[in-house]
Amino acid sequence: MLLAQNLPKAELHIHIEGSLEPELIFALAQRNGVKLPYADVEALRRAYAFTDLQSFLDIYYAGASVLLHEADFYDMAWAYFERAQADKVVHAELFFDPQTHTARGVPMAVVIAGLSRACADAKTRLGISSALILCFLRHLSEEDAFATLDAALPYREHFIGVGLDSSEMGHPPSKFAQVFARCRELGLRTVAHAGEEGPPDYIWQALSVLKVERIDHGVRCLEDPALVEHLAQTRIPLTVCPLSNLKLCVVDDLVHHPMKRLLQAGLCATVNSDDPAYFGGYMNQNFVATVQALDLSEADVITLACNSFEASFLSEDARAAFLITLDEAVAEHAG
Ligand code: HPA
Ligand code: ZN
Q: What pTM does this model have?
């Protein structure tokens, strides 16, 4: 086994709706009597030929249409946790997109109940710690984001923070300045997708206007040396998703992926799967493909695993405990 596959790690950028495998989409469609615009699993899989973020999002939102009941959200998240365990993911911070569901009449309570029950079972049955991060869809209005926040606040103890996802171009972080300010007042942790397809200025906005603690993707920071310098100095983490970047044509080939340059610049970059059912792999497949394409060293791999805990929203005690298990796994691999 490669070192990367063996190390304990945290996953910080996984859209739980993006973990819905075609087989589960069809099983849930049948269970719920939902008609899909694809004949079967193979036809759905054939549609996974993306040219950019939007071409993916159209199919991703269609896939999520089979989620109606508490058990559906539970089954989806449980399937993810089982795969995460196989990849030695010991802590996961899961994004969920409530607006995708509430817009179809699914109550916020149902979404959060199913996901949080799976998180609780992941801890007791698999030993995986986890947390939920509620994402606002940036193609919708800030007013809609405020309404979503209000609908979620009765379940405040079930999520640790908020994020910003969906179509990036034309929807700059500044569009959500007020709602993020409110979330910070409420003590929520904050992250935002920026610099996946959007320009470095969107990363600056996420930092200076939304005051986020972490940037999701952020790979386009390399176009702005002052931004790279800022990210290195503040150690604001980037949750990078190599196979996603490949599938959504952010990079034309993994050998050109910026991960190595991000590490060389001293950034707190991490490896994540984004939407693993759609992009061809979970955590370890992302690690292995990136290590091979970029010829990353064992020291790079250890740095990436270490960064995943540094970048997490774990308590200092929990982080320290995971870093000890990481050291032990490194020593065992060497010995
Ligand atoms: N980018 C933006 N929005 C998303 C993504 C992504 O990679 N995955 C799911 N929603
Ligand atoms: Zn994402």
A: 0.98
